Amino acid sequence: MTLTLDDIKAAAQRLEGHIERTPIRHSRTLSEITGAEVWVKFENLQFTAAYKERGALNKLMLLSDEQRQKGVIAASAGNHAQGLAYHGARLGVPVTIVMPKGTPFVKVEHTRQHGAEVIIAGETYDDAYGHAMVLMAERGLTFVHPFDDLDVMAGQGTIALEMLEEVPDLEVLPVPIGGGGLIAGVATAALALKPNIKIFGCEPAMYPSFTARMRGVIPNAGGQTIAEGIAVKQVGNLTYSIVRPLLEDVLLLDEPYFERGISLLANVEKTIAEGAGAASLAALLAYPERFRGKKCGLILTGGNIDTRLLASVLTRELVRAQRLVSLRIIGDDRPGLLATVSMVIGEHGGNIIEVAHNRLALDVPAKGAEFDIMIETRDAQHTQEIMDSLRERGYPPRFV
C-alpha cells in the first residue's frame, strides 16, 4: 500500500468546487525577519479554518452507499473533527467524533455546531482513539483516521499541487508533523512534481514522535504544548513508511517559537494561526541557517485557537520583546514620589498600564515605599531609556 501522485490528482478533481482553493502569497516582512523568501499558503481560510477538511472530504466521497448510510466515526483533537462534521452534514453522512478531555473549547463547540455527535473520552488522543474503536464495532460505523489513511493523505496532498502550480520554483517545504498525514500527502505530491524540492518535518519538542522512530527509541512525549494539533505520541505506521524516505530532516521546535510564529502571523500578516498552524514559520525562526536564502512554502495549517489563549500569546510576546515590562522602584515614602516617577515615564513616552504600591514588605525601609509599575514601550531600547532616566533621578528600577 502506498500513495501516488495519481491518487492526489484524483483527490483534487473530487474536491474541486467543494473546498476553498486558498491563496499562497509572498510575505516581504516575514522574509526580512527570517532571511528566507517566504510564501504562505493560507489554509486557515478554509470554511472550518483548517486544511483537514481536504482529507476528510476525500474519504467521505469514496464511501459506499451503505457506509454513508450507517455513518462514520473519528477520534480527533479538533480540526479533523470539524472538517469531517462539516462535510458529513453537507453529504448527509452521520458523523460521531470522540475527543480527548483537553481539546480546546472552541474546537468542541464548532464540531457540535456542524452537526456531529461529540463524545468526550480520555486524557489523550490515544485514549480517545481507543474509545472510538469500541464505538465503531458496536455501531457498525466506518472509522475515518485523521492521518493513517491513504485517502485522507491524498486529500491533504492537494495542498502541494496548488502551491507548486502557483509558485513552481519553491525550493523548500517545512511541513508540520503530528501523525504524518499532511506531510505524507504534501511530500509525495511535491517530490513527484519537483524531485529536487526539500521537505523538512516540524515537530513539537514535547512530542518528538517521528524523530524518536527515526532514531529507533521510545518517544519521550508529553506535556502541555500550544501546538496540540500535532501533539501525537505515536506517528502512524503507514504515514511513517511513506514519509521517511522523502524527508530531508525533522526539526524539533520549543514552545517560544510557536508563540512567536503565532504573534508574527497576527501582527505581520493580520491572520490568525493556532499553534500547529504556525509550526512552519516556527521552524524558520528556530533554524534560520537551514532556510536562509531559500524560497520556502509555509502551510498555515489552521486558525482554530481559543481567543483567551491567543490574547495570552500576544501579551507574552510583548513581554518577550520588552515592550511590556514590570519595573520595581523603592524610594522614600513622601508625597509626590509616585507623581515624579510617573512624570519621568510620561516624558519619555512610556505608557503606565498598572501600579502596585507596597509599604509593608519587610525588605523595604519603614520610611520607604515600593512600587511595581507595568509600562508599555516601543521596544527594548525605549525601555532602557526610561530605566536610565529613572536612575538619574534617584529612583533606580529593576525588572520584576
Question: What is the highest CATH level, the class of the largest domain?
Answer: Alpha Beta
Instruction: Provide the low-confidence segments as ranges.
Output: none
Amino-to-carboxy terminus distance: 58 Å
Question: Main sheet: which strands, in order across?
Answer: 5-4-3-6
In total, the number of domains comes to 3
Major sheet details: 4 strands, parallel
Task: Name the structural class.
Answer: alpha/beta
The CATH architecture category of the largest domain equals 3-Layer(aba) Sandwich
Tally of strands: 14
Name the beta content range: 15-25%
Instruction: Give the helix tally.
Output: 17
- Please state the overall shape, judged from the principal axes of the Cα atoms: elongated
Give the fraction of residues assigned to helices. Answer: 40-55%
What average pLDDT do the residues reach?
93
